[in-house]
Amino acid sequence: MLEILRFQPEMAVDLARCYNTFVADVPHCAPVAAECFADINRLSAAHTDEERIVVAHETGRRIVGFAHIAIAAPPTQDWHPKGEPGIIRFLAYQLGHRAAGAALLEAAERWFQEHERREVCAWCNDYTYGFYHLPFAHLSDRLMCVHALLGQAGYRVSMSGPLFDWHDFEPPTVARPDLEFELRVEPLQEPWIGPKKMDAGVAVRAMRDEREMGLCEMGRLARSSSLEDAHDWCFCVDLDVEESVQDRGLGKSLLSAGLAEMRKLGCRHAFIDTEWDNYRAQLFYTNFGFSFCDRTFAFAKEMTD
Hints:
By secondary structure, the protein is of the alpha+beta class. It has six helices and 15 strands. Strands 1, 2, 3, 4, 5, 6, 7, 8, 11, 12, 13, 14 and 15 form a 13-stranded mixed β-sheet that branches. The mean pLDDT is about 90.
């Protein structure tokens, strides 16, 4: 018999086991201890009004799945979802137990309806766990069982993008573009990536007559990440070049300089991301030295009565 129960602290060990098994094949997801699930308040996202964890329990078995759901708080930043929708922060179930996954999703949607929410956002990186995956990561394509579950229930992809990593990177030497500019390196204090705060990094600016022509911002993965070597990783938070000087090598100069600065700070590995249809950036990154790591997706649904 399958039961959907509300989370209790004594379930923390089973939830950690379920989470660790579920993300075992997801890049950059390290196992977490039961303490991570011992207190829902410690797991709470920064911009929610109410949260709940429901678990799927089969008679005579351990917990075979869980869903962490929430109600978004009123938006205070541009990137906050409008309308305070229902949020599926995380949903996992043991393979072979698809009924448990479906029951968890149904329970989540009932809870949203009780809170008079018609819009649902699922797996948006603004609300995923701080120890899950990388900054900007949504639902990994390694977790296809959840993709299929959401798709069958009427969810549509709302955001998607590929992630790239570079182990033991060596910033390439690139030819200086035939442009008049100077590179300025400034400290970048505490870049914020959704719910995953990164440590300070650098901002490299291409300037001409006090006008910014391009920018590369690099942050360092916080030590609070579950990855053992988290502080060895840097992330390109932003890479932008003025349209009038694109395709002239300025982006290469900025990214190379940004990586070199992070190397000085002790970083050994790097990662970067872009939108799913930005093929220009994908060609640039993969030919620059990065390797495809994962593609992740966020979902949305408008529920009917």
